[in-house]
Structure to design on (133 residues):
């Protein structure tokens, strides 16, 4: 699924979250952050707000864009785990964020167990022999 949002002076943040009851794994990958039509020549700082392993909120700047020197930044599919908030920490934008959202459905645990080979079913591999000269 494709993701796109725009941060402006009036809409400074966008939160991407998934249903907590969903039994799937979600990955959000940020590809491009760019200034769009109407942007001023000022520093526009975009940060990602999430939670660390101690459930404390952390904010990390991911882009500092300026129309005259760096209007676009490729983030090479910077992967994040939802929920995550994108925030315009400085500047008035508009800043467009683009990426993708991948949903990976978890397999049934019983199916995984049935799919595995038992030790008796596994073939024995021949030992590795030294190369001949």
């Amino acid at each position: 699924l494709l993701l796109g949002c725009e941060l402006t002076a009036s809409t400074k943040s966008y939160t991407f979250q998934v249903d907590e009851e969903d039994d799937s794994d979600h990955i959000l990958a940020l590809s491009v952050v760019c200034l769009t039509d109407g942007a001023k020549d000022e520093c526009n700082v975009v940060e990602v707000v999430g939670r660390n392993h101690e459930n404390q909120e952390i904010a990390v700047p991911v882009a500092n864009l300026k129309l005259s020197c760096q209007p676009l930044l490729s983030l090479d599919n910077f992967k994040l785990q939802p929920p995550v908030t994108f925030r315009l920490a400085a500047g008035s934008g508009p800043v467009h964020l683009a990426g993708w959202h991948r949903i990976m459905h978890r397999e049934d645990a019983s199916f995984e167990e049935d799919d595995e080979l038992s030790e008796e079913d596994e073939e024995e591999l021949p030992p590795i022999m030294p190369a001949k000269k």
Observations:
- The chain has one domain: 2-105.
- The domain at 2-105 is CATH 2.60.120.340 (Jelly Rolls).
- Residues 108-115 have pLDDT under 50 and may be disordered.
- The beta strands are 2-7, 13-16, 24-35, 44-51, 57-65, 72-80, 84-90, 95-105.
